[in-house]
Amino acid sequence: MFINLLACLFLIHPYYVSVSESVYNNEKSVLQITKKIFYDDLELVLKNENKNENFDILNSKKDLVNSYIENYIKKNMFFKVDGKLKSLNYIGYEIINSRINSYFEIKNIKNITSIQIKDTSLLEYFDNQENLTYFEIDNQRFTIRLRKDNVSKKIII
Q: Which pLDDT value is given to residue 77?
């Protein structure tokens, strides 16, 4: 009975989450970033952000989808490495099951002693949105949970 009640509450109050994986590749001096978002959530946000009611993330031209994703993520996701804001280089996206994986990198990072990650993706659209970020460096893995009341976290390596 209790499990059924929990299941019903979960269906009534949907859970919104995105997942980012950031891995520092020391050999290439690059931070590789993957942002995973359910495509229906992202489509809704991109329609609103671009004032394009006809936008269909699965069937629109790839150039348009690339442009919308790149602009939106760059507007909402930031990385400060050792106190310096770094630019995201957009690589592309792919659709895997019910999500969009978008890929970015930050080049020419020789060393990381601290990193601050800010992610406001989807927060203004979904009240209970959470952005989980996994950051990996030198076989160390850090987990960050970002929400409306806490959009940024600094990690000291």
A: 98
